[in-house]
């Protein structure tokens, strides 16, 4: 069942704000992104009580998650898939139909969305693919003017969304929700 974008967006925003408020010392200590995503997953679980929130979840039902992500500078005819570990997933374990949100996170990313993260999020949210997460989010934690902050870039149906596209994706998801009831 499609989920309303604004509800998913609001829950992720609240969880990120809670991380910045309650765990600000982690930014002062300059911990790695795995520590931040583990803490964020705790706040996400309280936002998404009807789902499971897992870090580095490497299963696709009963198989390892595999996805071909062509590294920059490699040949396009290389067909080896690699096991992928999303930073955070919001889902129902063992069911593709309930894959709600996949999050890839970085600290201080210099690109708006690094190549490999964008490729993974497009693959995870592609509805014709193996994983079919409804929404994807690239989360960039940064220190701006001495304070930690974050930006989120959204993915839906295998595409990175701009502001206008987010509005259109939400309208399409709401239409699907209405059609499914």
Outline the structure in words.
- 36% of the residues lie in helices and 25% in strands.
- With 181 residues, it is an alpha+beta fold.
- It has one domain (5-179): Alpha-Beta Complex (tt1808, chain A), CATH 3.90.1570.
- The strands form 3 sheets. Strands 1-6-7-8-9-10 form a 6-stranded mixed beta sheet, sandwiched between helices.
- The longest helix is centred in the first third of the chain and has 18 residues, at 5-22.
- It starts with a helix and ends with a helix.
**Could you say what the CATH architecture is?**
Alpha-Beta Complex
How many domains, as an integer?
1
What is the CATH class name?
A: Alpha Beta
Number of strands: 10
Overall pLDDT score: 84
How many strands, which pairing sense, and closed or not: the largest β-sheet? 6 strands, mixed
Helix-residue proportion: 25-40%
Fill in the CATH topology: tt1808, chain A
Distance between the termini: 9 Å
Shape: globular
* Low-pLDDT windows of residues: 73-78
What pattern of helices and strands is seen along the backbone? HHHEEEEEEEHEEEH
The number of helical segments is 5
Identify the notable features of this structure and list them briefly.
6-stranded mixed β-sheet; 36% helix; 5 helices; tt1808, chain A; alpha+beta; two-stranded antiparallel sheet; 181 residues; single chain
């Amino acid at each position: 069942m499609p989920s309303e974008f604004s509800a998913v967006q609001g829950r992720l925003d609240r969880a990120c704000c809670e991380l910045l408020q309650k765990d600000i010392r982690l930014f002062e200590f300059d911990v790695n992104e795995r520590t931040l995503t583990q803490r964020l997953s705790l706040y996400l679980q309280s936002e998404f009580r009807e789902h499971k929130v897992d870090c580095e979840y490497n299963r696709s039902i009963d198989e390892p998650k595999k996805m071909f992500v062509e590294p920059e500078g490699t040949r396009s005819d290389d067909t080896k898939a690699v096991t992928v570990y999303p930073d955070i997933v919001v889902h129902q374990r063992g069911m593709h139909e309930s894959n709600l949100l996949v999050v890839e996170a970085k600290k201080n990313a210099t690109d708006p969305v690094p190549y490999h993260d964008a490729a993974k999020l497009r693959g995870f949210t592609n509805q014709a693919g193996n994983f079919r997460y409804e929404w994807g989010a690239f989360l960039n934690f940064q220190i701006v003017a001495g304070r930690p902050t974050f930006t989120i870039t959204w993915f839906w149906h295998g595409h990175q969304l701009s502001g206008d596209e987010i509005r259109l994706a939400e309208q399409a998801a709401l239409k699907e929700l209405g059609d499914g009831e």
